[in-house]
Specification:
By secondary structure, the protein is mainly α. The radius of gyration is 20 Å and the shape is rod-shaped. The N and C termini lie far apart (65 Å). It contains 3 helices and no strands. The longest helix is centred in the N-terminal third of the chain and has 21 residues.
Amino acid sequence: MRIRIGVVVLALVMLFAAFVTSIPSQAETEAACRRSLDNTSTAENRPDVCQDVDAETYRTFLLMYALRAQGLD
């Protein structure tokens, strides 16, 4: 009986660890947002990846994208 409980607890711990490691970090989310910006991206028309990015950070990404598009990076 103890072995079964141990196996179940170990499986639950491993499932929890897998879930936690699959959550992207803020830096990964912001990097994905920067890669997804295009000419149709606006303050109101955010790509789906950018929904979790702070509004001020997103505006900065839009400005950087516009400057890069003009060759002013």
